[in-house]
Amino acid sequence: MALTNMHIAKIPESLMNGIISSLISTGRLQGNLIAGRSIFVPQCYTHAEDTYVNSFYSQNGYIEWNYLKRLNIADPGSYLKTKLPNAIHLPGLTINTLLVDQLKSLISGVIRDVSWIDLTHYIPSGLDSNETSALINPLLKDSPVKLIDTYLIADKFIENCENFLDTYLKKKAQTAFYREHRAILSIPPQQQSVEVNAPKQGVMSSKGGFGFGAREIKTKNVKKKYNPSRRKAGNLSTNSDTEANFHSGFGDSHSLMKDLFARYVLMDEFFQVLCAEANE
């Protein structure tokens, strides 16, 4: 109840604060007067609020500070540290020690079994990536485990992945090379030379002409003699140029690798390979 509304009854706010404080101190009025805000909170309301918070915390093993702000608790951190002194208090989150013990057990299991685990089934669903890191990283310390998004992965498992994923990635790399190479070879030579020949033709036509004062330029058509060795060399140079275009025609090598990886390495297949190896 806000005491600032007492001005309607023409009662000075300072006088009302003094009266209520006196009633609270003598035990005739059960509640608290929030200093500086002139708000009286009945004891029954505080008791119901504490009961609700304790019940939520006991059932879920955690409670978010933003949730308490919606309950008109101005300073959730101080409130929870007072009400739950044995809990673990992170920025924006208070967690039961039982949940922390469970997470420690999961970390030990991942190291022992050389495997990985998805934490989304064990941590509060409302946590963002920063809150998850704040919760998990202190528990890892120097453990041979990596936290990637919401996954705990043993370092030894990552090393093993390099072996059984090597064959999979090599096949995908070969598939990407042959498909892209075939696509380049399928482009007609005339289409490849359009951009090269077009500017030259434009320059010749602008300088030539048949008007007065113009100078006519005559050219002879020279028939090329057949030369097998030259023809063979020409084919080799064409192939080498095509392969060079495969590497340079897509921009820098880093962007090319990212593009090819995204197109040929499917995450569903990737996870299937990981799961199959983990189940063996």
Automatic annotation (TrEMBL):
Transmembrane segments: none annotated. Residues 9-80 form the E3 UFM1-protein ligase 1-like N-terminal domain. It comes from the Eukaryota. Pfam families: E3_UFM1_ligase. GO terms for molecular function: UFM1 ligase activity. GO terms for cellular component: endoplasmic reticulum membrane. This is E3 UFM1-protein ligase 1-like N-terminal domain-containing protein. It comes from Schistosoma mekongi.
